[in-house]
Design brief:
Length: 403
């Protein structure tokens, strides 16, 4: 079998997605996701100018060799754009391989290790009472794990709490990033109050999660972890920016609060200290941003040796294609933890016909051969690319800070 053609499809059914379609000489094709939120066109150029021309005529079954060819062969290793491009190709090649085998992808990854994939969904609100209502509603809908975020009184809505946050929704053109305001001293006392109210309202038979979105310093995160201990959170996510992995040592010294990090990581080298020193409990890499099925499997297998469990990033900007690949990995690996899942707009679901399924807090992989996610190119053509950015954040005095 040979790779005949590779198409890159950019479309915005509510938000931008970069999708590849790898077509072989015997008519089989595979689909992959290469979306990097807010930097989509960089991946398109990387694929079209530097990846696709080198792959025409190659054997698509050689998933490991092609992964290494693109990784080592670039000389400039790692980085989100490179790894998303590799990820897109890798997903498509695994799709082809599993279609050729006549099996769902998870069978090629070792088969099922579990019956179903637990997910968590998000609740946000401007007031604590609004968040409590939202969490109760998701409980009612069957969720066993729920992430809760609340706005800081006196500041505009921040990430995950209101309309001006990370959702570049509705196909809206946002040629400039919106600017959010951050104040750590107002946030730190608020979060324990939120979880106190949540435990009073929903009890203890539910996993509660919280995402700090990289906004604290290690010692501030340690304080928050200690203050949250009475409420037994499932995890505290992205407590600090994690380029400096050693920062987690300080948090770990002070609190038994389980920690999760990794949605912006793109290779195993972003997390070697975190994993080998057992500084975290959940690793949040996702197929699209960590080099596809091949990259994800390498990272999770490494993490499994150090008691670290998986928790694939799964917001709306991780397309149904990458979500499909995540679910196949989730169901197959031994150290699965949880899968983030926010769902998709109707237009997104129309554009990506998929065979995986969601029901009351759990996902199932598709049983069709391949990863089970396709792209309808006629639907994609109806939704052209529209520039849209993630917000940035400043302190109250105007200083740029982590978002
Ligand atoms: O900000 O997907 O846990 N989820 C998150 C996400 C990320 C966006 C970045 O593109 O933090 O909402
Ligand atoms: Co997050």
């Amino acid at each position: 079998m040979k790779i005949n053609e590779i198409k890159v499809i950019v479309a915005s059914p509510g938000r931008n997605f970069v999708t590849v379609k790898v077509i072989t000489d015997d008519g089989l094709y595979g689909i992959g996701d290469g979306t990097v939120n807010g930097r989509e066109k960089a991946v398109v150029a990387y694929l079209e100018d530097h990846v696709i021309p080198t792959l025409i005529g190659k054997d698509p079954m050689r998933t490991e060799d092609i992964w290494q060819y693109l990784y080592k062969g670039a000389y400039w290793r790692r980085g989100p754009i490179t790894m998303a491009a590799i990820g897109a190709i890798d997903m498509a090649l695994w799709d082809i391989k599993a279609k050729a085998a006549g099996m769902p992808l998870y069978q090629l990854l070792g088969g099922r290790s579990r019956d179903k994939v637990m997910v968590y969904k998000h609740v946000g609100g401007l007031e604590i009472s609004e968040v409590v209502e939202g969490v109760l509603a998701l409980r009612e809908a069957g969720l066993e794990a729920i992430r809760a975020q609340v706005s800081i009184p006196g500041l505009p809505p921040i990430y995950g709490t209101g309309p001006s946050t990370d959702q570049a929704a509705g196909g809206m053109v946002r040629p400039m990033p919106t600017e959010e305001v951050w104040a750590t001293h107002k946030y730190l006392p608020l979060v324990p109050k939120l979880f106190e109210k949540l435990r009073d309202a929903v009890g203890w038979d539910v996993h509660l999660l919280h995402d700090v979105h990289h906004r604290l310093t290690p010692i501030e995160a340690a304080r928050l972890g200690k203050d949250l201990e009475p409420y037994r959170l499932f995890w505290l996510e992205d407590a600090i920016p994690a380029e400096l992995q050693e920062g987690f040592r300080i948090i770990r010294q002070h609190t038994t609060q389980p920690l999760a990090v990794g949605e912006v990581f793109n290779s195993v080298f972003d997390l070697t200290t975190l994993i080998t020193e057992q500084l975290i409990d959940y690793i949040r890499v996702t197929s699209v941003h960590a080099g596809g099925v091949t990259g994800l499997k390498k990272i999770f297998d490494f993490a499994s040796i150090y008691h670290v469990r998986s928790a694939c990033h799964g917001p709306m900007d991780v397309s149904p294609v990458a979500m499909g690949c995540n679910i196949h990995v989730d169901v197959a690996i031994s150290n699965f933890g949880i899968q983030e899942f926010t769902g998709y707009t109707d237009a997104t679901r129309e554009m990506f016909p998929y065979t995986w399924s969601y029901d009351r807090g759990y996902l199932q992989p598709g049983e069709a051969p391949g990863h089970g996610v396709d792209i309808d190119e006629a639907v994609a053509a109806k939704y052209p690319y529209a520039p849209a950015y993630l917000p940035i954040a400043r302190l109250e005095d105007g200083t740029m800070t982590s978002w």
